[in-house]
Known about the structure:
By secondary structure, the protein is an alpha+beta fold.
Amino acid sequence: MSRMSFGMRRCLKGLLADRSGIAATEFAVIVPVMLVMFFGTVEFSTGLAIDRKVTLIARTLSDLASQSSTATSNQNASAIDDASLTNIFTAAIAILTPYPAVPAKVTLSEVYVDSNNVAKIKWSKAAVIGAGATQATLAASNHNPDDVISVPQPLLVKQTYMIFSEVSYLYVPSVGYVMGKSGITMNDASYTRPRQVFCVTYNNVPVLLNGQCPTP
């Protein structure tokens, strides 16, 4: 019995001393974790960069649309047309570079806060960007005239107009195992008051009264 026990002890010592496969085992265990951490860092950083660009697009679109200047001295309004809107929406492509602009959805609207502090859409236009396109294409908006929208309380100033921009971007990560396979929708919006005029008209909306923006 003692000789058997001695032999078993020698065998166990030999097994414990044999470390030839430990490095390979550790490598097989650690590498998947390290790869997940690496790709997770890359995807998170990319998503964060795109999120910042979405914010920048929203602010840029509303800012550009709000800079329309008055056409004549007896008007407190300016007009924006399809060509101008197309150029403004196209700015989103440059801002999103080097990321693809195809998942982006952009909308510009003018909002009027009436005498009851209710914010309503006056006009609205959207744009789509095709794969590889260098210019945006105008499209119908999801907003209709007189739709009531929610506006941050500090911006609810009675009888005033605002340019309202909305941006939505579906970010689909390259490695679906790290983040959501179906993608993450990033949204942002921006409100800017017309800079040099009281309101901005599109297709004669709002209808001017004696060259002045209506303030019901």
